[in-house]
Amino acid sequence: MQREIALSWLLLATFAALAISNRVEALPFIRSRSLWNQFQEDYPEAAQELLDRIENFAVYAQPDNAKRGLDLGLNRGFSGSQAAKHLMGLAAANYAGGPGRRRRSEQA
């Protein structure tokens, strides 16, 4: 019974979609200049400056180490605690008074 009701609603929705799609007209394709070409022809210096800025932004946006993602080693068999210890070690290494043996002159 439910299957028949679902099929009847599906057929009704299909016929409604077909009826609506036959009545709606699409916009005609107009072969005109695109907005960028028009801007480039009207303001060539501004267009070149815009392209230069985009290029510089793309070059300087990513630092050198941006290729490397956050690798916790979970896909290589490390546990979560090992990954956490590794990240804590990296954070300590970047800290000014980070890990390592202290010199006697600094301890005094």
TrEMBL record:
<dbReference type="GO" id="GO:0005615">
    <property type="term" value="C:extracellular space"/>
</dbReference>
<dbReference type="GO" id="GO:0001664">
    <property type="term" value="F:G protein-coupled receptor binding"/>
</dbReference>
<feature type="signal peptide">
    <location>
        <begin position="1"/>
        <end position="26"/>
    </location>
</feature>
<dbReference type="GO" id="GO:0007589">
    <property type="term" value="P:body fluid secretion"/>
</dbReference>
<dbReference type="GO" id="GO:0008613">
    <property type="term" value="F:diuretic hormone activity"/>
</dbReference>
<protein>
    <recommendedName>
        <fullName>Diuretic hormone 31</fullName>
    </recommendedName>
</protein>
<keyword id="KW-0964">Secreted</keyword>
<comment type="similarity">
    <text>Belongs to the diuretic hormone class 2 family.</text>
</comment>
<dbReference type="InterPro" id="IPR034439">
    <property type="entry name" value="DH2-like"/>
</dbReference>
<keyword id="KW-0732">Signal</keyword>
